[in-house]
Design a protein that fits this description.
Number of strands: 2
Distance between the termini: 23 Å
Helix content: over 70%
Order of helices and strands: HEEHHHHHHHHHH
InterPro entries: UPF0658_Golgi (IPR040410)
Largest sheet: 2 strands, antiparallel
GO cellular component, one term: Golgi apparatus
Shape: globular
Strand content: under 5%
Number of helices: 11
Radius of gyration: 24 Å
Keywords: Membrane, Transmembrane, Transmembrane helix
Length: about 375
Amino acid sequence: MAGPLTLKSLGIPTSIWARLFISVALLEVFAIVCIQGYVIKRTVDIYKNGVESQWGFGVQTGSTKMSITQESFIVYDVIFIVAQLFLLMLCWEAVAHKNTIQIIAATLFNIMCLVYSLIQYTTFYIRPSTSAGIFQKDNDMRVLQITTMVVYSLCSVAFAMLTWELYQLFGWKTYKKLGANLALRRAYKWHQILLTLLKLDIFFFISYSVQLATLVLRVSDPETWVQIGVVIPGSVVFLVLSFWALKVENKRVMIVVIVCLGLSPAYFIYKLVRMNVGIDKNNDPYLDSRKYLTFFIVVTLALILVTVYVSIQCYRNFGIGLKEGIADYDARKAQLKANRALLASGNKGESAVDNSNYEYTEVHERFVLE
């Protein structure tokens, strides 16, 4: 019979720092989802009487050929919400696995969300675009945007402080997992970095593609449907394949991953140039989305370049025993958990562990599992 649902049963360590880290993430998710949900409601109310646009709602302007659409703003708010759920997943997984690399990545990701909120506020109130001007007299919207920035700022400070404490607490876990072999420990560090980078790559590339397809490309443009139907799912499959190649240490697939990632910066540089060079001011498809897309392109480009470098390091470590070391640790951990369950049930005479390999003790279990 399954026991009660607790933080420990969900993999969260008993450390006060780990639980504070998750608590901050949960509070931030709740605050941002509530704020952005209300922002979406106000945006829909403003556009309620608007003329239908290409996607079925919005406002058409008579002075230009551009469509001022509510999805141009709602997409950004949805990205905020998705980003928070993604951040919560990063935090939860990092703490549950005592992964200091991913804990640091989660903190940096939260700072990126803060930068994104600053860009949104700039677009709305400091240097508003033509369509964003409709929010200029909406004081409630201004307060919501400021509150979003404040929440991200406070949580970024909290995450930074807790990251330091967790780094001190979890920093020796690699030694427990792989022993004193320095080569394996270095290889494992590159392995963890690449896993984290691939997760960030998925989020930023999909977010960029969704913004491009819904805000810039047109329903009548075949590129829109290629982006939605081929590029986005294809990218997800490719990055999932990258996870698999890293896990099983498949050199051929990893070479394909490195080559494809190495070629992709050419596309993003091309998009940056296209967004800023030779644009007709009276028919600018990037009018409301240039700042956001530039942010995502720059971040994605930087992540890809780092991912290529780290992928090469991981490729060079294939075959030195890291895969076997991780598999051995995972098997040993599963056996120890099974033994703990047997002890808890009162069947101390039974054992789920092969005692010919090592003697089971509760002290040994605490050393490995906590």
